[in-house]
């Protein structure tokens, strides 16, 4: 096992041919810090070098291999001191010009009369050329065998680190340390799915013997990356459930819950009641709750979490709510403080803005158990935050946090009960896979009285003027408006209206209306004051950046205008639209954009057609990389190279089922030490 750890050793601490002081920083820039990273720096594409041709057979824009004699070679200085080397290659069918830029080595190495092989892309203009071709003299055995070199890898690279250099480094690493690639997948799975071994796959992913071998290698590494993900997630859950059966008993007090629900100005939906009952049953049975609540914007996920928090507090525990942004933390605080104070429950806000003696006092009170619920951002996971009896953690916007952050907060509690909420809906089959360590509850019902938000794409100035008239009529009726811009300040490079420009513009358009601005650079107190004034209807129009994307709840706001809407993904557009339609009044969303980009047009058309978050998420998954929509740093999906969580659902399910069988068979233990180490490095490396 000790030799296997060499795979994770820093590359500057081991000897690899071709890794020099000059290219070491370039490799690190590519995320290559260890031998493991080097091996798993997979090609992004391949070039088929089986295309041997005569000069008179070549086509424009094709990659070819030519063999011939150098009949002329000269060098001269071009612009800015750059050296250009020009050579003429001849075979029995014709001549081809070869051009190299800033490659003095060619002039010294290649002479008239040399027989050489070249590889490159043909350009046909006034004359035929290959620019910056790779070459070797025939006597240097270029392409040692045709078979070994007919498919060459093209790697993700960085400036001045040439493909040939990366290839040589990886080839040298495989020659010297390939023996370390012990099998890290269970034999049962390899046999069942007819998967090739790790060493063979690694050689054929970098330097394929054939197309068939390359595909076999890609299949193997697709299954390997899914297995690492699923095994890491599900083993953690298996151990948690095994260690936490009947570890506590609640007295099942619910008087606070009853009072809170009766105080609500509306009745809970059937979907909300179902989720609450599911969680009650788990708590009553002494089971550790580990649940993802998915629901569209405005479906009432937060109220469900408040009910469960009250239940835990009445049974003697503290609660914590962690949100990704300060403004969302503030919104949760403002949304809970009035009602909970009536129930004699103490709620406090802990963010980076709480400093000095005030923070010190608050930390002591949390430690002594004098605070019932703490709401905050990443500040909650800092070492000096200690709870007396933390029993339930609620994490909002789950996809914005990592596994490690989630674990750090859970470790602070006597009970690791966890509810995570996400308003980024994904199909249930994917939710069960991606959040494999969580039970999934879906709130697929909006509160009664809510009507769908009417959405319109504003494409030109005529439509914009009509929109301004409509906004004025809405304000006259007593409604409020959000105007959202993707940027805070004007950009020299992007043709996008900034929030600051929008603020000035709207003051001119609506001189008699109360207008203010909120953005991420403002101080906590300033943002809080603006949001309080908007909530209390002292502001008619609030100009904002995406700080209002999640959590802000002002039922009287019925219109949202999203400027330069093509700059946002579908998921963000849907989240922003969800800031309106939260009351009984009919609500509207306007998407300003003059785009003719195909993907952007598709997004805006989808937004006009549907308000169903799950349908929107499916469209988003089609239009964007799956890791991008989910923002999933926490589960390792962002590391996946060969797996698409939409197209490969069957393969993911297959691995998921195998891992459950494997863990049950082995009592939650991973027998393969190499697999165990790879999982540990994947999930617990520094984030």
Automatic annotation (TrEMBL):
Q: Which InterPro entries does this UniProt record tie to the protein?
A: ATP-dep_DNA_helicase_RecG, DEAD/DEAH_box_helicase_dom, Helicase_ATP-bd, Helicase_C-like, NA-bd_OB-fold, P-loop_NTPase, RecG/Mfd, RecG_dom3_C
Q: Which SMART domains match?
A: DEXDc (SM00487), HELICc (SM00490)
GO MF, one example = hydrolase activity
SUPFAM superfamilies to which the protein is assigned, alphabetical: Nucleic acid-binding proteins, P-loop containing nucleoside triphosphate hydrolases
Q: Which reaction does it catalyse?
A: ATP + H2O = ADP + phosphate + H(+); Couples ATP hydrolysis with the unwinding of duplex DNA by translocating in the 3'-5' direction
Q: Residue limits of the Helicase ATP-binding domain?
A: 282-443
Q: Could you tell me the EC number(s) of this protein?
A: 5.6.2.4
What residues does the Helicase C-terminal domain cover? Answer: 466-622
One GO BP: DNA repair
Keyword ATP-binding part of the UniProt annotation: yes
Keywords, ordered alphabetically: ATP-binding, DNA damage, DNA recombination, DNA repair, DNA-binding, Helicase, Hydrolase, Isomerase, Nucleotide-binding
Highest taxon of source:
Bacteria
PROSITE patterns cross-referenced by the UniProt entry: HELICASE_ATP_BIND_1 (PS51192), HELICASE_CTER (PS51194)
Family according to the record: Belongs to the helicase family. RecG subfamily.
PANTHER family registered for this protein in UniProt? ATP-DEPENDENT DNA HELICASE HOMOLOG RECG, CHLOROPLASTIC
Functional description taken from the UniProt entry = Plays a critical role in recombination and DNA repair. Helps process Holliday junction intermediates to mature products by catalyzing branch migration. Has replication fork regression activity, unwinds stalled or blocked replication forks to make a HJ that can be resolved. Has a DNA unwinding activity characteristic of a DNA helicase with 3'-5' polarity.
Output this protein's name. Answer: ATP-dependent DNA helicase RecG
What is the organism field in this record?
Leptotrichia rugosa
């Amino acid at each position: 096992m000790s030799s296997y750890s060499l795979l994770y050793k820093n590359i500057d601490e081991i000897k690899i041919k071709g890794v020099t002081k000059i290219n070491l920083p370039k490799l690190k820039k590519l995320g290559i810090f260890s031998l493991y990273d080097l091996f798993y720096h997979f090609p992004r594409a391949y070039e088929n070098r089986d295309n041997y041709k005569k000069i008179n057979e070549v086509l424009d824009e094709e990659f070819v291999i030519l063999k011939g004699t150098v009949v002329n070679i000269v060098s001269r200085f071009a612009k800015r001191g750059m050296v250009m080397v020009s050579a003429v290659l001849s075979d029995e069918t014709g001549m081809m010009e070869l051009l190299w830029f800033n490659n003095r080595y060619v002039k010294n190495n290649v002479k008239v009369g040399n027989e050489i092989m070249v590889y490159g892309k043909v350009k046909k203009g006034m004359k035929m050329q290959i620019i910056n071709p790779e070459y070797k003299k025939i006597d240097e055995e270029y392409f040692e065998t045709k078979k070994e070199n007919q498919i060459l890898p093209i790697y993700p690279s960085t400036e001045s680190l040439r493909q040939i250099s990366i290839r040589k480094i990886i080839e040298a690493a495989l020659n010297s340390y390939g023996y370390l690639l012990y099998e890290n997948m269970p034999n049962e799975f390899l046999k069942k799915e007819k998967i090739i071994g790790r060493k063979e796959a690694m050689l054929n992913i970098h330097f394929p013997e054939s197309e068939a071998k390359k595909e076999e290698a890609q299949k193997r590494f697709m299954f390997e990356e899914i297995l690492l993900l699923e095994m890491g997630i599900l083993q953690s859950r298996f151990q948690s459930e095994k260690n936490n059966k009947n570890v506590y008993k609640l007295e099942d007090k619910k008087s606070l819950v009853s009072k809170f629900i009766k105080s609500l100005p509306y009745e809970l939906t059937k979907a909300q009641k179902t989720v609450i009952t599911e969680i009650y049953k788990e708590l009553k049975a002494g089971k550790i709750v580990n649940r993802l609540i998915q629901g569209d914007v405005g479906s009432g996920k937060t109220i469900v979490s408040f009910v469960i928090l009250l239940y835990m507090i009445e049974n003697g525990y503290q609660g914590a709510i962690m949100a990704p942004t300060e403004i969302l933390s503030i919104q949760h605080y403002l949304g809970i403080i009035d009602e909970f104070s009536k129930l004699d429950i103490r709620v406090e806000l802990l963010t980076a803005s709480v400093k000095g003696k005030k923070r010190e006092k608050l930390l002591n009170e949390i430690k002594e158990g004098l605070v019932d619920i703490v709401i905050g951002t990443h500040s909650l996971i800092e070492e000096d935050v200690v709870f007396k009896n933390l029993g339930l953690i609620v994490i909002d916007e789950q996809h914005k946090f990592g596994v490690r952050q989630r674990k750090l907060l859970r470790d602070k509690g006597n009970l690791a009960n966890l509810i995570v909420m996400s308003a980024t809906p994904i199909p249930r089959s994917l939710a069960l896979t991606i959040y494999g360590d969580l039970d999934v509850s879906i709130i697929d019902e909006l509160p009664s009285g809510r009507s769908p938000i009417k959405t319109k794409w504003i494409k030109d100035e005529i439509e914009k003027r009509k929109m301004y008239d409509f906004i004025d009529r809405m304000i006259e009726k007593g409604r409020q408006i959000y105007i959202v811009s993707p940027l805070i300040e004007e950009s020299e490079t992007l043709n996008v209206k900034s929030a600051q420009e929008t603020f000035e513009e709207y003051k001119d358009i609506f001189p008699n209306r109360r207008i203010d601005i909120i953005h991420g650079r403002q101080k906590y107190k300033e943002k809080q004051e603006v949001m309080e004034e908007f909530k209390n209807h002292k502001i008619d129009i609030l100009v904002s950046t995406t700080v209002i994307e999640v959590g802000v709840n002002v039922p009287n706001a019925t219109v949202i205008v999203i400027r330069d809407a093509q700059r946002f993904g579908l998921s963000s557009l849907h989240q922003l639209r969800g800031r309106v339609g939260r009351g009984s009044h009919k609500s509207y969303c306007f998407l300003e954009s003059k785009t003719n980009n195909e993907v952007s047009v598709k997004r805006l058309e989808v937004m006009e057609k549907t308000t169903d978050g799950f349908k929107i998420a499916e469209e988003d998954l089609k239009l964007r990389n799956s890791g991008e929509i989910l923002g999933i740093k926490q589960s390792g999906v962002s590391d996946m190279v060969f797996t698409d969580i939409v197209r490969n659902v069957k393969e993911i399910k297959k691995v998921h089922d195998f891992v459950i069988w494997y863990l049950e068979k082995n009592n939650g233990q991973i027998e393969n030490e190499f697999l165990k180490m790879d999982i540990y490095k994947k999930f617990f490396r520094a984030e």
